[in-house]
Amino acid sequence: MQAGLMDTYHRPLRSRKAVAWVLCAALVAFYLLVYYTDVLEGPARRLRLSGKWTLYSVLYTLAMVVGGAFFLRRHGNSPYQRVRTVTVVSVQVVLAFALPLVMKVLGHQEYYFSYFWPLKIEYFYPSVILHQPFLIVLYSFLGSLVAFPLLGYFLGKRFYCSWICGCGGLANTAGDSFRHLSDKSTGAWRFEKVSVYTVLAAAVITTVIVGLNWAVGKDHPAFSAFGFGVQRWYGLVVGGFFSGVLGVGLYPLMGTRVWCRFACPMAAVLGLLQKFGRFRITVKKDMCIACGNCSTYCEMGIDVRAYAMANEDVKRAACVGCGMCAHVCPRGVLKLESRPVRFKGGEPIRVYAVDL
Amino acid sequence: MHYLIVGNGVGGMEAALGLRRRDGGARITIVADEHDHFYSRPALMYVFAGQTSLRDTEPYDRALYERLRFERVRGRVAALDAAGKSVRLDEGRTIGYDRLLLAVGSTGRPAPWPGAAGPGLHYFVTLRDLEGLDRDARPGRHAVVVGGGLIGVEVAEILRHRGLKVTFVIRENWYFPLALDEREAAMVAEHLGRHGVDVRLGVNVQEVRRGEDGSLRGVRLSPAARAAPPTGAAEVPCDLLVSAIGVVPNTAFLAGSGLALSKGGAIEVDERLRAGGPEVWAAGDCANVTWADGSRRPEQLWYTARDQGRVAAASMLGDPATYIRGAWYNSAKFFDLEYTTAGWVPVRLDWDNTPLDPGPDLREWFQRAPTGFDSQRVVGRGDRVVGFNMVGRRWNHEVLLDWIAARRTLEFVLDHLAEAQFDEELSPRWRRQGPAALT
Ligand SMILES: Cc1cc2nc3c(=O)[nH]c(=O)nc-3n(C[C@H](O)[C@H](O)[C@H](O)COP(=O)(O)OP(=O)(O)OC[C@H]3O[C@@H](n4cnc5c(N)ncnc54)[C@H](O)[C@@H]3O)c2cc1C
Ligand code: SF4
């Protein structure tokens, strides 16, 4: 068994009991305050921080560092999980926390080097592009348009969603004890396919509208009003409500990847690349005992067991490659892989000589 | 056509799915007395430990029965009238059929020791066993687990996790001789010791001690036959006694039905899994089948129950399907140690501790890593490789079995062994330490 996961269902906080609802309410309230009010400006100043977003950033990074230690205590016996967690926490501390802070102190506009369009939609807005040095703009464009498609194709979306991204990072550190709460129903899968690509479409359309608005808005006041409206609403609904309020707020009830699974436009793009790319979860033939650990602990709600029982490798756009299914499988049935060939042993054999 | 399936385990469920796939119009009824939904029996330990819920161990969504029009009857079959083609439930109702599949599985082998029956005695095979053990297993208590097999080690693990003191009583001179050799077993025992399990090898339970009020007090252990090194008698106090000394088929209700049963109670079947009666089939833990070595025994494995269920369905549909046991493989876990076996690996010690001779042309290559619990054993006959026994890492049995089928030599296999590694990514690559020589 997995020492870190035992007793999951014996703990009220981890099994949707009253305390979980209370925590959910508290998280939602906190996010509503952060996104839509200035209540936190006061405490931020008292802590001599420049504003509520800096305070938020401190809290977020702290949650990931402490959560990372918690995660390593639970799953540190796996080399994949060790390296992955140290990486994603370091990326947060260095690229998403320290570097932007230094930039700010030095009087530059801050830049989050671990975030890219379309997740960070503003990074393709002309207003941002024009205010950043050329090298940063180049970094951002090469990242979004060249490096990400290539890495997504060759390594799977995990390179970002589980190794770099702060949203995934929080999910896999501070949120780890809620991962089993993801909805495994086919209904949720159907909803996810509609919702995540809808948000992706919204992100692309918003970017185009904002770009057009910059180019021609001055001459067309009506369009300009519309353009700013779209930009504002995307920010409020997707950036604030989906990613923050629901994305983190629902951890104690619906698991940790609600945002990543149902709404993240970056996950949507990378998922498509992954579907046609090399990454897969290889299934060892006929070895599954249907125990359900893999599906239970899949934070993306993938019914991994169904694939394992059917002897089919898992190739799903949703998979963020966190590796937990493979880690918890008591029969070693699953293996994350992105290398082109499996083995040179010869033809796969039929394990049972059943004559049907 | 009315197909009646007794048993909602993997054998029964696979058969029902197979029947429905091919015969959309048939009436399919499933009778079972344990749970309304098919669940994974090997997952019982995770439910006990709270690592999964019972519902998590149900492989299919609950709407499956309705969607595939499987009629469900919750009840216990008390008798079979093979001539009249009907079964009688213990509540009195009878259910007729055109074709019957018995996939009734097994229950824990009853503890044979004097004084065993009574409060505090547990098994770990069914949901009812799980509930009883769950109620009784309170932190700080002392449990004696008897039986050096896979269920025993699982029970030891969950009880240790719950904070009980565990004494693991094993009759043989080393743990799990059916699958492990002395070196591998010593390694596993050391690992169990690190997890706080008190492993007692080469001892039998002589008697179970109970107080005036019948409450469990402890067990008296006596040396097993040919115990080596010699063991002595001992008294072990305990609050719980878990008997994990194997399973027996759930076939008591078939006495007098006219079906042929083996001495151990398993239903005799032919290679098409037809049981002795007209229009009766049997599959899974309860069926007596022919093994590769020609002996007849039930195969008490998830994989074989699954495949027998599939073959039984085809056979019931009238196909000339036969069940032939393919290449042997299995995997398990001893606490944190993963275990994979493939092909033919000799048993070195009989249940009564007599050494077994593996034959003259047997050769073996064994390596244990200098640190940690990690060993590989490659078994050869002449110069070809016939089996693998691997503890402590993950291996792809498909590749291993492929090499056996391709009659690879030991040199080839040891040169390529790392390709069969199936550990998580970023795990250290397996390396050969010694020369590729068989002993
Ligand atoms: C704790 C544990 C761990 C295990 N781990 C592994 C493992 O890791 N790997 C492995 O290969 N195997 C493992 N096994 C063995 C494996 O679970 C069994 O071999 C397999 O489940 C057998 O399936 P079956 O369909 O034949 O019977 P079962 O799953 O036992 O199903 C029997 C069904 O018959 C019903 N039934 C029985 N009698 C009656 C009656 N009179 N009337 C009505 N219904 C009846 C029961 O309710 C049940 O639904 C394990 C077993 C246990 C107990
Ligand atoms: S793949 Fe592994 S974890 Fe998943 S159900 Fe099968 S045995 Fe369990």
Structural class of chain B: alpha/beta
Ions and ligands = flavin-adenine dinucleotide, iron/sulfur cluster
- Assign the CATH class of the largest domain in chain B: Alpha Beta
Determine the strand fraction of chain A and express it as a percent band.
under 5%
Number of domains of chain B: 3
Catalogue the unreliable spans of chain B. Answer: none
Shape label of chain A: globular
Give, in spatial order, the strands making up the sheet with the most strands of chain A. Answer: 1-2
Count the beta strands of chain A. 2
User: Gap between N and C termini of chain A, in Å?
Assistant: 36 Å
Q: What is the global morphology of chain B?
A: globular
Would you tell me the structural class of the helices and strands of chain A? mainly alpha
Largest sheet of chain A: 2 strands, antiparallel
Annotation, overall tally of beta strands of chain B: 26
Mean pLDDT of chain B: 95
Tell me the CATH topology of the largest domain in chain B: FAD/NAD(P)-binding domain
How many domain units of chain A?
2
Percentage of helical residues of chain B? Answer: 10-25%
- Mean pLDDT of chain A, to the nearest integer, reads 92
CATH architecture identity of the largest domain in chain B: 3-Layer(bba) Sandwich
